[in-house]
Design brief:
This protein has 81 residues and is α+β, with helices and mostly antiparallel strands. The chain has one domain. The chain is 26% helix and 37% strand. It is built from 2 helices and 5 strands. It has a 5-stranded antiparallel beta sheet, with helices on one face. Strand 1 and strand 2 form a beta hairpin. The longest helix has 15 residues. The radius of gyration is 12 Å and the shape is globular. About 6% of the residues have low confidence.
Length: 81
């Protein structure tokens, strides 16, 4: 999946209005909105040359960024997650 696809991805939830947790090592930031969280993760992963995790507040969406690019994407589809 390309970065463009990750930026545009949306499910049936109101994703732009959700909170995402951006994690770099022990530094954790809560960011409102997917676009802002993805932009921050890309920037941090480039600046610090480390993998950055972005997880939606409900745990259904998980992304990892390395060197400013998306390297993994998981969308949990099972009910109850």
């Amino acid at each position: 999946m390309s970065d463009l696809q990750a930026d545009r991805y949306d499910d049936d939830d109101d994703t732009p209005n959700r909170t995402f947790v951006v994690t770099l090592g022990t530094d954790v930031q809560n960011i409102h909105g997917r676009d802002q969280a993805v932009a921050l993760a890309k920037e941090l992963s480039r600046e610090h040359d480390r993998r950055v995790q972005v997880e939606r507040e409900d745990g259904r969406v998980l992304m990892h960024f390395t060197n400013g690019s998306l390297d993994s994407f998981v969308w949990e589809t099972r009910a109850g997650k």
